[in-house]
Design goal:
The chain has 148 residues and is mainly alpha-helical. It contains four helices and no strands. It is elongated.
């Protein structure tokens, strides 16, 4: 198995592991918040902001993970520079942007969420650059296919 395929398979399983963790967190959020309250007092408004933001963001995160699963499966089949992969990347990009936007109002109730908002906005920008590169590569591949 070559290096790229090994890395793709590893990333595919890591993606699935994160998905499983997200599903577990959907059911374990309240106990985790209660456990966290042993170390830092959270006001009821802060707990509510964390809970609402998490459940809204989890929809986007799970959708992004599902799209990354499809992308990684395509890469495993050596389907790299195709327009469907660009669409999958753009969906992941939008999910990152939406998570960032959801976190902004939650920042007003619980300030540390601002870090998540900034990180997700940066990730959205990074994925946007990668999707633009992929889109250009797809266009070049299609142009070269027509000339051959």
């Amino acid at each position: 198995m070559d290096k790229q395929l090994k890395l793709t398979v590893f990333t595919l399983w890591a993606n699935r592991l994160v998905g499983i963790i997200m599903i577990i967190l959907l059911f374990a959020l309240k106990p985790i918040i209660n456990w966290y309250c042993n170390f830092r007092v959270l006001l009821p408004e802060e707990q509510l902001a964390i809970t609402i933001a998490f459940y809204i963001c989890s929809v986007f995160v799970l959708y992004a993970l599902w799209n990354m699963e499809k992308l990684l499966r395509a890469l495993r089949k050596n389907e790299v520079f195709v327009s469907s992969n660009v669409a999958l990347l753009r969906r992941v990009q939008w999910c990152c942007g939406l998570v960032s936007l959801v976190c902004v109002p939650a920042c007003f109730a619980y300030i540390p969420i601002v870090f998540i908002a900034v990180i997700m906005a940066f990730l959205c920008l990074c994925i946007s650059v990668v999707s633009c590169i992929m889109d250009t590569a797809v266009a070049l591949r299609e142009e070269n296919d027509l000339t051959i």
